[in-house]
Design a protein that fits this description.
single chain; 393 residues; alpha/beta; Archaeosine Trna-guanine Transglycosylase, Chain: A, domain 4; Rossmann fold; seven-stranded mixed β-sheet; six-stranded mixed β-sheet; 31% strand; binds S-adenosyl-L-homocysteine
Length: 393
């Protein structure tokens, strides 16, 4: 088998079982592995470290499949996939939910592989050369483990470019239609657009945080910034909010949000197209006030290189949100930026409260739902952080 030989001392992260090999750590490649092919990773002294998938075009030149010497074959994928799906079997018992993440990449021991279940349809997203090479085996194993009837592929994430992979989307198993399916989440219905929805169609990681907002909303005037297809806004109305205003810049997302409102017989949300940064200023200038504000922006800092600009953006929207809150009001604020740690996020929010001239407390810390586990050896998996802050009376 082809081998990657590391530079002296560069085996340290692998010894801690971090599943990535960076190109700068590699002294030489023995043989001529193809993209996605399995290679052995060895230390400079010749010690076997792991079996990995080779990604010659990426800065992450190899991603670990296994720490032992075993065959990386159909049986390997069937085993890992059966395990991940099995662990989730009872996770949503009694939750009146039929949409969940089944495979969460590195944290489920399958770098570059994400699979989400939307009712009877699985959506597969492959973002590394290794994952791409095993597409059919992975799809088969998923069908076998989950009993789902249909598999769609949504391998159109930008990160594929870094791996030298072209986008690939569309049906893999089963029919193309319907391209929109209705899922249930804690009793509410949401339409998921398999073809054009963000990520694999829906932000499953926010499931339990949406329920949290439902429970905070009774009698309150609510603003949902970056509402996408209405997740927080519809939960707020379902929870008995007095009024709900929801803002997003995507007309397509808002069209689906309106459809979702209708599906649930929740007609009270004021859906507003526009830029949240501008809208918050406009609301401030108009002296509008709210009791509960959610801010769930897109990734401002995908990597550490964007942190400074991202920090300014987070501070800006959170400062404005604090100004719009009545005394005793709550801000539920998120960052899904890999480059922004929870410590940094908390500092940014503290700075925003200070500059807004409010006293606020953290009353709760939020993260991704439990079908998005974080392997302890892969802290990068802990991307979603949220704070529930209450402004003093
Ligand atoms: N909370 C949502 C997910 C939000 S995703 C849920 O629970 O489903 C982030 C959203 O922000 C996307 O819908 C995107 O269209 C929107 N967006 C990105 N930049 C924006 C901006 N500057 N102003 C308004 N919306 C924006």
């Amino acid at each position: 088998m082809h081998k990657l030989i590391l530079k002296p001392g560069r085996e340290k992260s692998l010894k801690r079982r971090h599943p990535w090999v960076f190109s700068g750590a590699v002294a030489k490649v023995q043989g001529k592995p193809d993209a996605g092919e399995t290679v052995e990773v060895h230390s400079a002294t010749g010690e076997f470290l792991a079996l990995a998938a080779f990604s010659p075009q990426s800065q992450i030149v190899a991603r670990i499949w296994d720490w032992g010497k075993r065959a990386i074959d159909g049986a390997f994928f069937r085993e890992r996939i059966a395990q991940a799906v099995g662990q989730r079997r009872s996770l949503l018992d009694g939750a009146d939910t039929d949409a969940m993440r089944l495979l969460h990449g590195e944290s489920d021991g399958l770098p570059g592989v994400v699979a989400d279940r939307y009712a009877d349809t699985l959506v597969l997203q492959l973002t590394s050369a290794g994952a791409d090479a095993w597409r059919d085996v992975i799809a088969e194993a998923l069908v076998e483990a989950s009993g789902a009837a249909r598999v769609w592929e949504r391998s159109d994430a930008e990160v594929r470019e870094l791996e030298g992979l072209a986008p690939a989307s569309g049906p893999l198993r089963g029919p193309r239609e319907p391209a929109r399916i209705v899922v249930r989440e804690h009793g509410l219905k949401f339409e998921v657009d398999l073809e054009r929805g963000h990520k694999t169609g829906f932000y499953l990681d926010q499931r339990d945080n949406r329920l949290r907002v439902r429970r905070l909303a009774r009698g309150r005037d609510v603003l949902d910034g970056f509402c996408y297809t209405g997740g927080f806004a519809l939960n707020a109305q379902a929870g008995g909010a007095r009024s709900v205003m929801a803002v997003d810049s995507s007309a397509e997302a808002l069209a689906l949000a309106r459809a979702n409102a209708e599906l649930n017989g929740l007609s009270g949300v004021d859906w507003v197209g526009g830029d949240v940064f501008q809208m918050l200023r406009h609301l401030r200038d108009g002296r509008r006030q709210f009791d509960l504000i959610t801010l769930d922006p897109p990734k401002f800092a995908p990597t550490a290189a964007h942190v400074a600009r991202a920090a300014r953006a987070y501070k800006d929207i959170n400062l404005l949100a604090f100004k719009l809150l009545r005394p005793g009001g709550s801000l539920v604020t998120f960052s899904c930026s890999g480059g922004v740690s929870i410590d940094l996020f908390q500092k940014i929010i503290a700075g925003a409260a200070l500059d807004a001239g409010v006293n606020a407390q953290i009353v709760e810390r939020l993260g991704a739902a439990p079908d998005h586990p974080v392997a302890l050896n892969f802290p990068e998996g802990d991307y979603l952080k949220g704070l529930v802050c209450r402004v003093a009376q």
